[in-house]
Design goal:
41% of the residues lie in helices and 20% in strands. The protein is α/β, with parallel strands linked by helices. A 7-stranded mixed beta sheet has the order 3-2-1-4-5-7-6, with helices on both faces. Helix 6 packs parallel to helix 7.
Length: 223
């Protein structure tokens, strides 16, 4: 829930973007449209979208999951990086916000790669598990309601293959997890999620100070 990587010093940020960001015009347009709607701050920053593209390319991902679509910036970024036969199952509950996403997916020519499921994320992931899709996905990105983060993660873990990657957004949550006086629902959920993931020896992890904190969990092949 940050449109910038706020942990990068303000004086350095323009330079950081100038020498590292390669944002396609359609992604930039979507980002600008999103900035002008209610809750536009939920949009991931462009460098995070670009980093997701790098991860998908690096891992050779073809089958992806996304929990939390909003206006579709991250799913569009990932879809643009996927090969022609790549697909994303994208989970969200808002027809209003995802209607914006659909327009941009169509304009980018990647609508055929994105299977949007409008239902609570836990229900969609449980349905995939019931269909026997265990271990069939290469990459998952979680960026939805914080109270369900561990529920999403546990299901994503079952759905990705050994050697598959799970990326979880907002894990630094504007620095709020370190303030123990902050007992708000979302902060407590992120704090608990980070603690549980740190103890999960089924995965290799790394937390990165990009956006609002992005944690990567690599499912070991032995798991």
């Amino acid at each position: 829930m940050s449109t910038t990587s706020y942990l990068i010093p303000e004086k350095l940020y323009p330079y950081f973007q100038a020498v590292s960001l390669r944002e396609p015009p359609l992604l930039k347009e979507l980002r600008e449209v999103t900035a002008n709607i209610p809750r536009g701050q939920m949009q991931v920053p462009p460098e995070q979208g670009q980093f997701l593209q790098l991860l998908v390319t690096l891992t050779g991902a073809k089958k992806c999951l996304e929990v939390g679509v909003f206006t579709g910036y991250s799913s569009l970024a990932v879809a643009l990086a996927l090969p022609a036969d790549g697909t994303i199952i994208a989970c969200d509950v808002s027809a209003e916000w995802t209607n914006i996403a659909r327009q941009f997916w169509q304009r980018a020519g990647v609508a055929g790669k994105i299977d949007l499921r409008l239902a609570p994320g836990v229900e969609t992931l449980d349905r995939l598990l019931a269909e026997g899709r265990h271990g069939t996905f290469d990459f998952a990105f979680i960026d939805a309601d914080k109270a369900n983060y561990w529920n999403y993660y546990e299901r994503a873990y079952e759905l990705v293959r050994g050697g598959g990657l799970i990326a979880v957004d907002n894990t630094l949550w504007y620095g709020k997890p370190v303030d123990l006086a902050d007992q708000s629902e979302d902060t407590v959920a992120i704090r608990d999620f980070n603690r549980q993931l740190h103890r999960d020896e089924r995965v290799l992890i790394s937390m990165l100070p990009i956006g609002d904190g992005l944690t990567l969990a690599l499912k070991t092949r032995e798991a």
